[in-house]
Design goal:
It is built from five helices and eleven strands; from the N terminus they run E-E-H-E-E-E-H-E-E-E-E-H-E-H-E-H. With 248 residues, the chain is an alpha/beta fold.
């Protein structure tokens, strides 16, 4: 039985526009940095939970606005990625990280299977079941979908500067990714590339392989550099850019 939602233990997924008419389905796994009080911040100082290690800065606002403007369903995670990463297979070493970037996560070190399974059952499984339910229903209606994940990345990682403004990550959907990059490159000031700053890897990624490729859907993951999403103007600018690319 699913536990009743409370302010400290919200429902594990925020669903927007479930009846949306667009064939695009948006996912935003790292939308929140919320950690229930009983976890005591996983032993981290409060300022650490405002960093990228806890969530993808700026993406929740972009996703909400894209869902509205596209008339597309969107699924947003409601817990910090430090509790369990919704975009990792549960058997990945980074699913519940003991270390993120250069920061140890004390509350994740040495957790037992009972606690791991609790997080899977309370956060991971219901999030993805809601997506599966929607995709199954659309298939029964004869509707196909495109999966677009919305994420952000740090401008510097382990001391290395990342020059890209946006990356489009893809596995089997090169044509779709190339089409989006072509549209984004209409602004010559942008540095746009494919499969940066990461690559899609079935061992380390979940939404694109499982909800996209396994169903034969076009599927990409959008990574916007997070320093570009720190202000309302930045969020609006990138929402406009992504909307234009996705509707071209």
């Amino acid at each position: 039985m699913t536990a009743a939602a409370t302010p400290d233990w919200p429902a594990p997924v925020e669903v927007l526009n479930a009846a949306g008419t667009n064939d695009i389905v948006l996912t935003c796994e790292h939308a929140s940095n919320h950690i229930p009080a009983e976890y005591a911040g996983l032993g981290l100082a409060p300022h650490e939970l405002t960093r990228h290690i806890a969530w993808d800065i700026g993406v929740a606002a972009v996703t909400r606005e894209l869902a509205r403007r596209l008339d597309a369903p969107a699924f947003l995670g409601t817990y910090s990625r430090l509790l369990i990463d919704l975009n990792r297979p549960v058997d990945s070493p980074t699913s519940i990280p003991a270390r993120s970037e250069a920061t140890d996560i004390p509350g994740n070190i040495g957790i037992d299977d009972t606690e791991k399974n609790r997080r899977i059952e309370r956060m991971f499984t219901p999030f993805h079941e809601r997506i599966e339910t929607l995709l199954d229903a659309r298939e029964k209606q004869g509707r196909k979908s495109r999966i677009v994940g919305i994420h952000s990345f740090t401008p510097v990682f382990h001391g290395v500067q990342r020059p890209w403004h946006v990356g489009i990550l893809y596995g089997q959907s090169k044509d779709y990714a190339e089409a989006l990059m072509t549209e984004l490159r209409r602004d010559p000031t942008l540095v746009v590339d494919g499969n940066v700053p990461y690559i899609i890897d079935r061992l380390e990624d979940y939404a694109i392989p499982v909800h996209g490729e396994d169903r034969g859907y076009p599927a990409v993951l959008v990574e916007v550099r997070q320093d570009l999403l720190l202000t309302d103007d930045g969020v609006q600018e990138w929402t406009d850019r992504l909307y234009a690319a996705l509707t071209a």
